[in-house]
Each structure stands twice: as C-alpha cells, then as structure tokens.
Design goal:
The longest helix has 30 residues. The protein has one domain. Helices cover 68% and strands 3% of the residues. It has eight helices and two strands; from the N terminus they run αββααααααα. A hairpin with a 5-residue loop joins strand 1 and strand 2. Helix 1 runs antiparallel to helix 2 and helix 3 packs across helix 7. With 292 residues, the chain is mainly α. A two-stranded antiparallel sheet has the order 1-2. Keywords: Membrane, Transmembrane, Transmembrane helix.
C-alpha cells in the first residue's frame, strides 16, 4: 500500500539521520574544552566546549550525550523492530511503532528548540519533520470503531490509567518546584535557565506532555475509544523516555550535580512504565491482516 510505503520511507530516513545525529553527539569531542561566560543576566555559566554541544552549558551537554547513547542503542533498534513487526500485520507492532516514533518526535522537537545552534541544525529539522508525518500517519491507520475490542477484559484499566494520572501530577509538581519559588521570592528566573532563553523542558512538559498523560490516563479509566489508541502509544514513548532520563540523571551525577530525588523518582517511573507497557501488550488481541 502507498501508506505503508510512505511510513517505511520516512522511518528509514529517521533511522539513518538519528544514527548520524546521535553518533556525532556521543563520539565527537573536538574543540578547546570548558570555559566560563557571563550571561545577559550577569551570571557566570560554564560552557561545555566540546563536540556539537560545545556551546551548551556543562550541566546540560552531558545530558544530551547520555540521551544520544539511548537513542543510538535503544531507540533506533526499537524503531527498526517495530517497523518490521508492523509491516507484518501486527497491531502490537503498530502500537510499538507509534510509541517509538513519539519518542523520536519529542526528542528532536526538544533538540531543535533547546539546543544551541550547531552543525546538526538541518538534521534536527529533517528529523522533526519526518517523525511528525510518520507518527501522524501511523496514528491515522488505527480503526477507532473497534479498537477497544482488541483489549482483553482482564486489562488492568484502572491501574494503567491511574499511573498516567499520577505520573503527570508527580512530574508536574517536580517542575513547579523549579518554577514557582523564584516567582514567590521575586528573583523570577530559576538558576536552571543558565544562558538559555527559557525553561524549554519544563515548559513543554507542563504545557503539553503532562496534560496529555493526565487526560490519557483519565479517559482510559473511563474506557473512551480514543484512549485505547493513545494510552499504549504513550506508555511506549514514556518507557523509552524514562530510560533516556535515567541516563541523563546518571550523567549529571557523574559531573557532580545534585541528583536527589530524581535518581530515585525517574528510574522508578521508568520501571513502572515498562511494566505497564508489558501488561498492555499481553492484553492486546491481534487481528488478522489488519495492517495489510
């Protein structure tokens, strides 16, 4: 089918360019090394000074490198596996493909809007575009009229949906602890802004990803058809993302940054997300030749 061919082409482009971008971030170490700069706010920030992230701060660049490892050795293999599985007619494969594409979409959206301009800018642009259209086409391929019937009656709806609601509230409170205190004490700008323009991660999480988690969980508990699509996809995305975040927290710790309570919260959420993903997949009944 033309549809299947377009997703295969887009996913192939994503695989190639993600390997390029992640490899350059992980293995490129050229440039002079760390140095200090004064921000427009009069604060001193240590810049990483190496590789594609040489203009990022020494606090943030190692996180990008850590996520590069996860993208290279977890995200790309999962994208290949899910694409092959989905092309064989598997509904589970299509859910896995949607969730994995969601991870790449969010990852390169963040890289494009947060990463200091570097040689990979056009690569990020192409990755964002290809992942968006591949993700959208994959979502549109599902038949919502009977999707709820593909889940067994033993699916732990309340537990799975409840965790998504809890996840959104817990992470949201963690980010509000960064944003709100400076607003209360009058300093306005959190130290985490460093030499960047704003808090990109916290902003997109609070404005988009966490509300999606909350609504998906709530409507899944209420057994709304659209959430039978969003919830499995979101859990795959969340599982990969939490693995990447765990790697980022570990990298922060290796550079002497304070990582409590994140070093406890993030891996715990990651393990629960993977557990819920397994539960969901165990309770999906495969239709015959639905993807053909």
């Amino acid at each position: 089918m033309k549809y299947r061919k377009s997703i295969t082409i887009l996913s192939s482009i994503i695989i190639i360019l993600a390997v390029v971008a992640a490899s350059m971030s992980v293995f490129s170490t050229g440039s002079p090394g760390p140095y200090d700069i004064e921000t427009v706010r009069g604060e001193t920030v240590t810049v990483y000074g190496k590789g594609p992230y040489k203009h990022m701060s020494e606090d943030v660049a190692p996180q990008g490198i850590a996520q590069g490892y996860i993208t290279l050795f977890v995200g790309v293999p999962l994208l290949i596996l899910s694409l092959v599985w989905a092309r064989r007619g598997s509904l589970k494969g299509r859910f896995l493909l949607a969730g994995t594409l969601g991870y790449f979409l969010v990852t390169y959206l963040f890289y494009l809007v947060m990463g200091m301009y570097n040689v990979l800018f056009l690569v990020y642009v192409i990755l964002l575009g290809t992942t968006f259209f591949a993700f959208a086409q994959t979502l549109l391929s599902f038949d919502l009229t009977n999707i709820a019937e593909r889940f067994s009656e033993s699916t732990p709806i309340k537990f799975i949906g409840g965790f998504l609601v809890f996840n959104s509230m817990a992470i949201g409170l963690m980010w509000l602890q960064v944003v709100v205190p400076p607003l209360v004490n009058g300093s306005i700008i959190p130290g985490q802004v460093e030499h960047y323009t704003t808090l990109i991660v916290q902003g997109l999480d609070l404005g988009l990803l966490l509300p999606l988690s909350f609504v998906s969980g709530l409507l899944f508990i209420r057994r709304k058809p659209f959430e039978y699509l969003l919830t499995p996809m979101y859990f795959i995305f969340l599982s990969i993302l939490m693995v990447a975040l765990t790697a980022k927290v570990i990298a922060m710790g290796m550079f002497g940054q304070h990582i409590v309570p994140a070093i406890v919260i993030i891996p715990f959420f990651g393990m629960v997300s993977i557990f819920c993903s397994v539960l969901i997949f165990k309770n999906i009944r495969e239709p015959a030749h639905e993807y053909a």
